[in-house]
Amino acid sequence: MENDGINADPLELEKFSQLAHRWWDPNSEFKPLHEINPLRMDYIEQFSGLKGKTILDVGCGGGILSEGMAVRGANVTGIDLSDKALKVAKLHLLESGQQVDYRKITVESLATEQPHHFDIVTCMEMLEHVPDPHSVVQACAQLAKPGGWVFFSTINRNPKSYLFAIIGAEYILQLLPRGTHEYAKFIKPSELARMARAANLTGEKIIGMTYNPITQVYALEPDSSVNYIMAYRA
Ligand SMILES: C[S@@+](CC[C@H](N)C(=O)[O-])C[C@H]1O[C@@H](n2cnc3c(N)ncnc32)[C@H](O)[C@@H]1O
To answer: Does the reported pTM lie above 0.90?
Structure first.
């Protein structure tokens, strides 16, 4: 569903708004994001470092990644379209004393406003919630400086990811509320790679993000069959 020509699904935004007050509770529905956060920040740092970098975090939600990168010394702008998530993100800055510039703006509009502005663009766990992920990938590429880095994470689309990301995470382990994810919106790495190539992104790297339900530990591993991160240069 499109929203007055804006590349956003109002129902998706509403889902996140409804849960937003629990964003910073590490035992809430956002527990998985809290737990993967150090892993993904370490992964980004391997490529480019974070200290002193100008970073855009697209679909920042309550700010777990944005603020985490600010703690590591980055100058972060976080954008989202959920008013409540942005409000929670801003309130949390009062508690943490960190600085992040949170804005409600579409990534496509920001790409027109500030093209080639950011050293790093992150777009994590967001593409599978938008009607047109191509357009988001294109805008992220445009927002990065030439030679800058762009990172996407999302969920693969295959029977295993259906089993793990929907049946396992939402129904059996109840790590996420039912209805968090829609299988048809999952994105195969080959599809994301095609979108990235069309946006002139290069130097592709991919890493899997796995969850072991027995040890309850997340890890970065070559297995990209469920969750994965792709890194590119603009
Ligand atoms: C699963 S959360 C991920 C939050 C954050 N990126 C992270 O990984 O910690 C998805 C976020 O994408 C946001 N979102 C969904 N559609 C969006 C859009 N079209 N533009 C910007 N943000 C969007 C939601 O409001 C929500 O905050």
So the answer is: yes
